[in-house]
Amino acid sequence: SVQIAAARRNFMLFSSAVFPALEFATFHIAYYRILQAFAEGRIKRLIVTMPPQHGKSQGSTRLLPAYMLGINPDLRIAIASYSDSLAKKFNREIQRVIDTPIYNSIFPDTTLNRSNAVTIASNHLRNASEFEIVGHKGSLKAVGRGGGLTGNRVDVMILDDLYKDAMEGNSPTIRDAVYEWYTSVVRTRQHNDSRELMVF
Q1: CB 76 within 8 A of CB 137
Q2: Contact 91, 97 (CB under 8 A)
């Protein structure tokens, strides 16, 4: 249908289709247009700063990875946050989006293993830390700050709230540790065409 075709091309229309409860204020429209440019590769490096409870993670870390894997099921995406449990929560929420019938209508080529275990029928990984797109090279890995990305080439890196709160953000010790991890782990997994999104 026309709506399905439009959702395939437009991140905001896609987001409304898979998450009908979304409400867009004026700044959300600008935000989703910028995320669209990031999804299409017109922006390679992006930093988003927004107050809490304004929907920044909803757009950048829950809906955007699902949209990007729909556009290109061969993308290798990594998500990192201040804790492993939050990163895994993002992963599970992305899986839930991809599992919906409306997502399957918009992006029929992007599907997940129906089981949380790797089976003989489908050797594609799917758990709270990582999942792979069936029949494609694409995947999504979620790690907590300081976690490893060894052996994983990353096409798209999304860093969402690397600091738990202001106290952590104001700590020179934690800032130094985050910077060391970022330079020695995050940047070394990227290549010349990788994209990177930081959300604070």
Answers
A1: yes
A2: no
**pLDDT of 116 strictly over 80:** no
Q: Give, in order, the Cα–Cα distances in Å from 41 to each of 35, 46, 164.
A: 10, 11, 29
**With contact defined as beta carbons under 8 Å apart, do 138 and 73 qualify?**
yes
Cβ proximity of 66 and 103 under 8 Å: yes
Strand runs labelled E in the chain: 45-48, 76-81, 130-132, 139-144, 154-160, 190-199
Return the pLDDT at 117: 54
Length of the chain, please? 200
Q: What does the CA dihedral 109, 43, 163, 90 come to, rounded to 10 degrees?
A: -10
By three-state DSSP, how is residue 120 classified?
coil
CA–CA separation, 22 and 34 (whole Å): 17
Q: What is the pTM of this model?
A: 0.91
- CB contact at 8 A, 93 and 128: no
139-144 β-sheet, strand order = 45-48, 190-199, 154-160, 76-81, 139-144, 130-132
Check whether 120 has a pLDDT greater than 50: no
- Alpha-carbon distance values, 4 to 21, 49, 62 (Å): 18, 31, 20
Q: Would you say 110 and 131 are in contact if contact means Cβ atoms under 8 Å apart?
A: no
Q: Encoding tokens for residue 41?
A: 């590769």
Q: Give how far Cα 130 sits from Cα of 38, 78, 101, 113, 120, Å.
A: 22, 9, 21, 12, 18
